[in-house]
Amino acid sequence: MEAGPIPTSTPMMKTMLRCVLSLLLCLPLLCRIAEAQPPRFRVLAFYSETVEHDHVDFAHQAISFYTEAAKRGAYRFETTRDWDDMNATKLAGYQLVVWLDDFPHTAAQRAAFEAYMEHGGGWLGFHIAAYNDSGTRWPWFVSFLGGGVFYGNEWPPLPATINVDDPQHPLTKSLPKSFLSPPNEWYVWKPSPRENKDVKVLLTLAPSNYPIGMKDVLTAGDLPVMWTNTRYRMLYTNMGHGDRIFTSETQNKLLEDSLVWVATMKQGR
Question: Could you tell me the pTM of the whole model?
């Protein structure tokens, strides 16, 4: 027995068709409502175009990386090359500031950043963002970083095995005990931030890497790679030199999670 045509004129079918049509008509409105939902948090990333080209390359790739991550994470990621945006009025609208390839140079910019952080702001710094030496003359920032002053680096940029210091930390609990980080220029700080009781080191250059470098060689020593000063909502990571930082899935997941963790963390964690 052959099946007959599906009836479309019964009251039930008419009701179903009306419901489907109503849903289709409502879709644009629902999409606009979803787009209008406020972001989880807002991020302002600072960068410069006139610094070392390897740092600029990293900044460009980081901007692309975090722009896509923001879509997945439902937060707003904005960028600026104007470091005078480091002012109280501008910073008040953001839960997190990111320094990709540079740092504040004027007294006004520094004072605004200090006030922002002392009142609960968040900071994520990459590589050169933490640079300081005898000529920097910003003691507050040295203390903010945990007391470490730039001491040296290996050269050229090389891949390195990174050890996880605290496998129970929210940022590292999904990482293996160690992983290979793509080529980077690895910085040394003296004294080591680890010596500060308020600093929690999350990642360290594995001793198995030594000696590391060709032109400039590091032969031994404690080299923290990622840490947080628990007196602030902050995180620093040594990664950030060149155009190969985002070539590791393991490290990419860590860097994506790092931004969200700082933006949503409570001070002292």
Answer: 0.86
